[in-house]
Each structure stands twice: as C-alpha cells, then as structure tokens.
Specification:
Elements: H1 22-51, H2 53-60, H3 64-85, H4 92-111, H5 122-147
Length: about 150
C-alpha cells in the first residue's frame, strides 16, 4: 500500500520547493547580486554627497541644502536594498518596489537638470545624467532578474 506524500512546507507567499527549479534559484542569485551591488553603490554615493557636499557644491552647482537630504535618503535606500538582498527568497513585491523606485529616481535625475530648480554647472548636469544612466542600468538588471524567475519568492 502506498503512503501519501507529505506536502512540501511553504511559507506564506512562497512556492513549494518542487516548483522552484534551479533556474529560479539562479535568477534569485542574479537578483540578490544586483541588489547588493546597487546597495553598495547607493551607499557610496550617499557618503560622497554627505562628506563631500560642500566641496562638490562649487564645481557641480549642487547646493549643500540638496546634497545632505539626498545623501541621507541614499543611505536609507542602501540599507533597504541590503535588507531586501538578505531575504532567503526575495519577495516579488519588494523587487517591484525597488524597480519602481529606481525608475522614478532615473526620471528625476533626467528631469532635474532641465527644470532650473538647481543652479547646476555643466559638470553638475553631466553628473546627474550619468547618475540617471547608472540607476537605469540597475533597474534593468533588477527587472531582468525578476523576469527570469526572481519573482518566485
């Protein structure tokens, strides 16, 4: 007589292990790596804005009254990214939140130089536009990890 199989244990919002093939684990690994690199880059940029805000103000035209809040927000964002990357299974809703936040940040960095809200110099405009490209690359890589199976978590 056959015995019934025991269902795989699951946590709320996760798929049973049998439904998560190696490809999904690989996508989670890709997503986790991108989130960690994004976290470190965001933290480094936040530190630069906080520690070097007054030194960068002249060459970039980015007032210290903007660089300090941006730096603090970036350190908070870096901490959030590191926490998300540390989940055993990265939740899809958090991945989508990161992608949305990076997309909005990219758009803000693209638009800010052309609004005259800041007295940016030419190097300051280039700095923000390069930042927009970097953020867009992270959003695209995180989206790729999500689409390749990183959403399974």
């Amino acid at each position: 007589m056959a015995t019934p199989t025991t269902p795989a244990s699951t946590t709320p919002g996760s798929a049973p292990a049998a439904l998560c093939p190696a490809a999904a684990r690989g996508a989670q690994d890709l997503l986790r790596t991108v989130l960690r690199i994004d976290s470190w880059g965001t933290a480094a940029f936040g530190v630069v804005l906080l520690a070097g805000g007054s030194a960068l103000s002249g060459p970039l035209g980015l007032p210290i009254t903007w660089s300090v809040p941006f730096g603090i927000a970036m350190l908070g964002g870096a901490a959030a990214l590191a926490l998300i990357a540390g989940y055993p299974r990265i939740p899809a809703r958090l991945t989508l939140t990161v992608i949305a936040a990076n997309t909005l940040s990219c758009l803000a960095l693209l638009l800010l130089p052309f609004t005259n809200a800041l007295p940016l110099t030419t190097p300051g405009t280039a700095f923000l536009l390069i930042g927009a490209v970097v953020v867009a690359v992270f959003a695209a890589l995180e989206y790729r990890g999500y689409c390749r199976g990183g959403r399974a978590g």
